[in-house]
TrEMBL record:
InterPro entries xref list: AB_hydrolase_fold, Lip-like_C
Species annotation: Aegilops tauschii subsp. strangulata
Subcellular location(s) per record: Secreted
Lipase-like C-terminal domain location: 17-128
GO terms of molecular function: hydrolase activity
One GO cellular component, as annotated: extracellular region
Protein's name according to its UniProt entry: Lipase-like C-terminal domain-containing protein
Pfam families in the cross-refs: Lip_C (PF24708)
Length: 363
């Protein structure tokens, strides 16, 4: 793993690197026996970097990890955040950053898939606010941000999987996410080195290992008294519409950064009803997920996630995310955007505005 890190360092004077940021349950270079999350993109050029961030950790924690992955040093999750959510302040140490010269004169291109797009946006805001002690950061450290089916405004998928639509942070007592929670807790508690090197959910800073908490600690974790699922410092609450609204309310679109967004869908209109676009060539499970999201209706007894919410706006989807969420940041306020019909409409490229190719939206 250390050899992989040394080979991944981008040297000073090279063209700006492209940093690919994975989504939920994703993984970086070196995990799952060398499998590539981004179809081998990192093998084509040394300037393509694929960080391994926590696959289920919160957007905030991932953003902090991403900074130190590039710049180097020990991951600092922040004093206040760590105290509020009950985990250690410091995490993994990167002896050598993968792009240690990163600054305004040496910016980077970010490409975020799914939840990875929000991770980059949160990191960008942290850079603008100089939120990393000892580093004089700014928003101009990011040359471009490309969102691939990005979870920019949340997804109704989270409610089907078990998040409560009433608040967007709590879980139902019986649901798929509860099974996931139990599995992750046992996995991290067992703390089997070779297994965690193969795949890691990213909760080491919560110190859930049997070596740290013993059997009584496992009981507390399973009962929901401690840990990330108790405090809410994990990815799913950040991917609800309510959670995304809270995050978006703190984020800006910056004037010197180029923004591109590619949205997808597997739905179409049939007699005025939104349905999956095709059965042919689609795995039955994906077809069912698309159909399920087409039929989502916000509970009548629950407060609307934001003013002006309409179920029909959220019907188009790709089985994991709603298309309306992928195009550009919309809630609580809509960020500058332009839907591009022809590539020539992008010339000259304009920073500070989300460019959304329409031919991608209509896939």
């Amino acid at each position: 793993e250390e050899d992989d890190e040394r080979r991944g360092v981008v040297l000073d004077g090279s063209p700006p690197p492209i940093v690919l940021v994975h989504g939920i349950f994703g993984f970086g270079k070196g995990r799952l026996g060398g499998m590539s999350y981004f179809a081998g993109a990192e093998k084509k050029d040394d300037r393509v970097l694929v960080p391994d961030l926590g696959s289920l950790t919160s957007i905030h924690d991932r953003a902090r990890e991403l900074f130190y992955y590039l710049k180097g040093g020990q991951v600092d999750y922040g004093v206040e955040h760590s105290q509020v959510y009950g985990h250690t302040r410091f995490g993994r140490i990167y002896e050598t950053g993968h792009y240690p010269v990163w600054d305004e004169q040496n910016p980077v291109h970010f490409v975020g898939h799914s939840a990875g797009a929000q991770v980059v946006r949160v990191l960008h805001q942290m850079l603008a606010e100089k939120a990393f002690p000892g580093h004089d950061t700014s928003e101009d450290w990011v040359l471009s941000l490309t969102s691939l089916s990005g979870a920019l405004n949340g997804t109704t998928r989270t409610y089907y999987d078990g998040m409560l639509a009433e608040d967007g942070r709590s879980m139902k007592s019986i649901c798929l996410l509860q099974l996931c929670r139990l599995g992750v807790i046992v996995y991290d508690w067992l703390d089997i080195p070779w297994l965690k090197n193969y795949y890691n959910f990213g909760f080491d800073h919560f110190e859930m290992s049997w070596r740290k908490v013993g059997f009584s600690g496992l009981v507390d974790l399973l009962l929901g008294n401690t840990g990330p699922f108790s405090s809410g410092d994990w990815i799913l609450p950040d991917l609800t519409i309510q959670g995304s609204l809270k995050i978006n309310s703190t984020l800006k679109t910056f004037p010197n950064t180029f923004y591109f967004s590619y949205a997808t869908k597997r739905t179409r209109k049939l007699f005025g009803i939104t349905v999956p676009s095709s059965v042919l060539g689609v795995h039955p499970m994906l077809f069912l997920r698309v159909l399920q999201m087409c039929m989502w209706r916000h509970p009548q007894n629950a407060p609307l996630p934001y003013k002006g919410y309409r179920d029909e706006d959220w019907e188009d989807n790709d089985g994991a995310l709603n298309t309306i969420s992928m195009t550009h940041p919309r809630i609580p306020i809509e960020h500058p955007n332009r839907f591009v019909v022809d590539d020539s409409d992008c010339n000259p490229l304009q920073p500070g505005i989300w460019l959304v190719p329409c031919y991608q939206v209509l896939l």
